[in-house]
Write a structure and sequence with these properties.
Layout lengths: L1 E5 L9 H9 L8 H11 L5 E9 L2 E12 L5 E5 L11 E2 L4 H13 L7 E3 L6 H11 L23 H6 L3 H17 L4 H7 L1
Parallel strand pairs: 4-6
Antiparallel strand pairs: 1-2, 2-3, 3-4, 3-5
Length: about 200
């Protein structure tokens, strides 16, 4: 197996099809490249650096970890998953059956990123602790501490379903939501089969 670290959005385009397949297998719709690449293009925080860890098994994509990094106010360099605070649920992807080989490789590459990580923060990722424990085990020198923290997320109860709920909202909100839905469909055209398959 071989690894690489991609640092530019243009380098991600050739990965779209195999990355889609990785997201579809475990049913991870928020980790599809259509979402993640769009976030990198339009919402990557100013001054942040794109870092995508990729693992190959021969010519087959075996793993993808989409990250971005930036220095915080105290001077520490923090890496987070793409989409943090916007695309909640983006997570690293690994081809089924290759976890034992891929996870340690990803962790080793993560520890060696430039700039060197001071903090690695996975937010709202169900398997986040497992990923970070693998990373800590591969860390050079004294392993870092892995800390869990819980936050509350806002939610709404839709009752009898989305359309019924939508019918109780204002006309302008309904038009706005439908317009955004159409725009999303147009922007992901050609990838809708994968999105449907994942969902």
């Amino acid at each position: 197996m071989r690894t690489e670290v991609l640092t530019r959005v243009g380098q991600l385009e050739p990965l779209v099809e195999p990355w889609d397949d990785l997201a579809a297998a475990p049913s991870r719709p928020r980790s599809v490249p259509a979402w993640v690449i769009s976030w990198y293009r339009h919402a990557l925080p100013r001054g942040a650096r794109l870092r995508v860890i990729v693992v190959w098994a021969g010519d087959d994509l075996a793993g993808v970890m989409p990250l971005f990094g930036r220095r915080n106010r105290l001077g520490f360099f923090r890496y987070q998953l793409a989409g943090t605070r916007m695309l909640t649920g983006v997570e690293p992807l690994v081809r089924s059956g290759t976890e034992e080989q891929v996870l340690p490789l990803m962790a080793e590459v993560l520890a060696g990123l430039t700039p060197t990580p001071d903090i690695v923060h996975f937010e709202c990722v169900e398997s986040g602790r497992r990923w970070l424990e693998h990373a800590a085990a591969q860390w050079p020198g004294r392993p870092p501490e892995v800390i869990n923290s819980l936050t509350r997320s806002p939610s709404i109860q839709l009752g009898d379903g989305y359309e019924t709920w939508l019918a109780t909202r204002s006309r302008s909100l309904c038009e706005q939501l439908r317009r955004h839905s159409r725009q999303l469909t147009e922007q992901t055209s050609g990838r809708s089969s994968t999105l449907t398959r994942v969902l």
